[in-house]
Amino acid sequence: MSDVYDIQGLKGLSDGDLVFHLETMADLLEEHPAFKDQILSACIPGPVKIREHSVEIKQASTAAKQDPAKEPVRQEVREKAVQSVKFTCNYVAMYAAHANDPSLLDTIGMDRSHRSSRNMAAKPPKRFEKFTVAHGNESGTVKIYVNKWEGKGSVEVQMCTADPSQEESWRTIQIFHSCHMKLKGLEPAQRAYFRVRLITDAGNGPWSDVLELIII
Q: How far is 194 from 182, CA to CA, in rounded Å?
């Protein structure tokens, strides 16, 4: 059942990217109907367990850099984290099927698996139809969401604090590989503008609408 999601894609992430992914996923799971106010079996990892894995990977990664002999521990910690994500995805898929609500599959921060088609030609990426920006739980943190897209692609996030009508005001903040994103370390008490676009093998998509947010 876990083939609904691209679990294998997590194994190719760096320690830092995997930690970020797990933290973002834990944030989303805390608000997901499959976990919020639910009594879960011990075999189902929830947001607390996912967050514990992120801490363990940080610690194991630092230890392995200082002592190469601890590399097997780092690998083991990563494998356990990916396994927990797999179990979590299985549970979400079953919950969504029971609730007859496929939209619940797209709100845990995991990319869906896509079956490739030999007859499908590479199409230029489209403009994002959905794009939201909101405050995060911590000061200087912003959460960003865009709609899902077909095939492989990345999301380029740009921000500016000057005149958004001037192209030179914009700068790329980060490239993401998921529709759920989080920016950290932004300067509070400033008015910022955001825009995003999809990047695929076929090229760069058009920029989204510009959204405004006062960083807190």
A: 13
Tell me if residue 110 falls in helix, strand or coil: coil
Q: What are 35's two structure tokens?
A: 């976990």
Backbone angles phi, psi at 18, to 5 degrees: -65, -40
Which CATH fold topology does 131-215 show?
Immunoglobulin-like (2.60.40)
Which segments of the chain belong to CATH 2.60.40.10? Answer: 131-215
Q: What is the pTM of this model?
A: 0.59
- Tens of pLDDT along 16-66? 889 988 999 999 999 999 998 888 888 899 899 999 999 999 999 999 999
CA distance 100 to 93: 10
Q: Which residues contact 38 (CB under 8 A, 6 or more apart)?
A: none
Find the helix or strand (DSSP H, E) in which 9 lies: helix 8-11
| Residue 72 exposure: Cα atoms within 13 Å on the Cβ side | 1
